[in-house]
Design brief:
This protein is α+β, with helices and mostly antiparallel strands and 195 residues long. It has one domain: Tgt2/MlaC (Nuclear Transport Factor 2, Chain: A). It has six helices and five strands, in the order H-H-H-H-E-E-E-E-E-H-H. It has a five-stranded antiparallel beta sheet with strand order 1-2-3-4-5. Helix 1 packs antiparallel against helix 2 and helix 3 packs parallel to helix 5. The longest helix has 22 residues.
Length: 195
């Protein structure tokens, strides 16, 4: 899979009036900018630039709560909840920083925005790669504190949330919370190495 967990403007913060489509356009323009500067920035530089982008465009807490599900989430104390949110946030940023490393003519284009049930919005976009190949990104957003934020991403129709749900819940069931945190930390290390 080209990306795991994806990701607003490098300049300034999002306003409450931003439409879901604008959130995605800002995210994607930031990713292109990071790719253009990727080799000069290096992994740490890309991570630093993308941190506020991901924080503004993704609802990390809701994503990890949804992945783990109500049953596992309820079993965690506040310290564990904070730890898994923070570790998953680091992994999300690391994934972007490790995968958007250089620009070879790739272009994002937003195709459409439409309403979904449960007061969510879908923004469909495509990434045209340098070889002419196309990757479809469908972003599901919902409002949090008056701002639209990403709660799921589908890559060519495959839900990132569903993949992680299966993987993370099986770790929790089989090996427990500490093993899940270790898995996330291992993935962060791998993202750094894939630069």
């Amino acid at each position: 899979m080209w990306l795991m967990m994806l990701p607003i403007s490098l300049v300034g913060s999002a306003s409450a009036a931003e439409a879901p489509e604008q959130v995605i356009q800002k995210l994607q323009s930031s990713l292109i900018q990071v790719m253009r500067e990727g080799p000069q920035l290096g992994y740490e530089g890309r991570y630093k630039v993308l941190t506020p982008v991901i924080d503004q465009s993704h609802d990390i807490e809701l994503i990890i709560k949804t992945i783990l599900g109500a049953t596992y989430w309820a079993q965690l104390d506040n310290d564990q909840k904070n730890l898994v949110i923070d570790t998953f946030r680091q992994l999300s940023i690391a994934t972007y920083a490790g995968r958007f490393t250089q620009h070879e003519g790739e272009q994002f284009e937003v195709i459409e925005q439409r309403e979904l049930p449960h007061e969510q919005m879908l923004v469909r976009s495509q990434l045209t790669k340098s070889d002419g190949g196309v990757v479809n990104f469908d972003y599901v957003l919902q409002q949090k504190e008056g701002r639209w934020r990403i709660v799921n991403i589908l890559f060519d129709g495959v839900s990132d949330l569903a993949i992680k749900r299966g993987e993370y819940r099986s770790i929790m069931q089989r090996d427990g919370f500490a093993a899940l945190i270790e898995l996330l930390k291992e993935k962060i290390t791998l993202a750094k190495q894939n630069q």
